[in-house]
Amino acid sequence: MKKAIILFCGALLLVGVSCQKQQASFATDEVKMTGPKQLVVNEDSAFTGELWDEDHRRCIEMKDGKKMKVILLHANGEKAVEFRYAHDNHEEEVLFYNENGREITQKEFAQQYRPLILQYGLN
Predict the structure, then answer these.
(1) Which of 24, 39, 71, 106 meets the CB 3.0–4.6 Å disulfide criterion with 59?
(2) What is the pTM for the complete model shown?
């Protein structure tokens, strides 16, 4: 019985470690496309995790090498724009947020954050 408990706990630990999000950075990691929609980081298999730019202002969330979301941040670290890509019967969508993290319309975002739109090239 004791061995079974130890094996069970070990299995849970392995599952927990393998399910943790990985983080990578364009500045420090080698990132390349291996197929039309497959991303590989540091020659590993299809990447699952977050890929950040060097300023930590842009994040690409990946799952099995596929782009799931792109998140752009305000200067204060709050989410500014979130692009959710179409997968498994989910439609593509874009969400906009103010500096306090409240969701706003695209029109409000365009009026309030014109410099951010130019910075990220969202025109």
Answers:
(1) 71
(2) 0.66
